[in-house]
Amino acid sequence: xxxxxxxxxxNKKSTSPNSSDDFSGQNLDSPVNALxxxxxxxxxxxxxxxxxGNALILATIWRRTFLRTSFHxxxxxxxxxxxxxxxxxxxxxxxxxxxxxxxxxxxxxxPKVVNAIGFIAGLSTFLFVNVTVAxxxxxxxxxxxxxxxxxxxxxxxxxxxxxxxxxxxxxxxxVYILALSKPALWYTLFQITITNLSFxxxxxxxxxxxxxxxxxxxxxxxxxxxxxxxxxxPAIDLAKYKKSVASMLYIFLxxxxxxxxxxxxxxxxxxxxHEDTLIALKLSTVFVYLSSSLNPVLYFWRxxxxxxxxxxxxxSLRT
Length: 319
Known about the structure:
It is built from 11 helices and no strands. By secondary structure, it is mostly helical. Helix 9 runs antiparallel to helix 10. The N and C termini lie far apart (46 Å).
């Protein structure tokens, strides 16, 4: 669920989760608001890292210094989403909460502007989270098809996959917008979110299990026959594919660490509005945005083609 949407739980009188009334009636010196202010500052500082880091990854991929594959096409979608998160969601989220926790005069004088900032922060975050989940799912399926020696993402299928990823968040976004005026719909939105996440995690888990079985099958045949062929298929470089699969698992692990605590916190907040729960929710928000800043570091570390392409990019800029 979006970050601003959960403020409905902090003020039962609020009809909109992005309403400036969510904080104006609270003690700005309270532990929750102090934590909100701290997380907003951290998220604001993370924004430039996400923008610069992901911009460099995109420049490296699209400069064509190495052979681009279907994997790089899907990865580019994930990088673009992280870039837009740093460019749009993080600054608006930080601005909204810094205003709400430090400047009640601005809220009273410009309530529509403050609400608009909160709306953009919440809607964009909800959009990018859903797109990230869908892209991660496509990335795992692409690795599965690649290990199976199948051509999954042809030119036509790439366009189809792009459309599916963009359409995937639409039902949630429609309910999100309607919930701003009908708070009862937040529970419907939560159910949709859980369904989407569960479905995508199921597909991702299945894809990686299939990849593991393929690698394991080749390992056993190599040990038994001393060759690296299976069922008449061309030989595969097990060391190379193991590293590729490990890299994707690192990406998925970072994704899980970043998003699962936030999803669990939202679920708990819908049940109870205890202050400790709200504190946990605010802390988990930092992890959501942190992934957009850490992903580029992970790509440079685990992907040799990205790393070498970036070195060539730097060399060309110096000349």
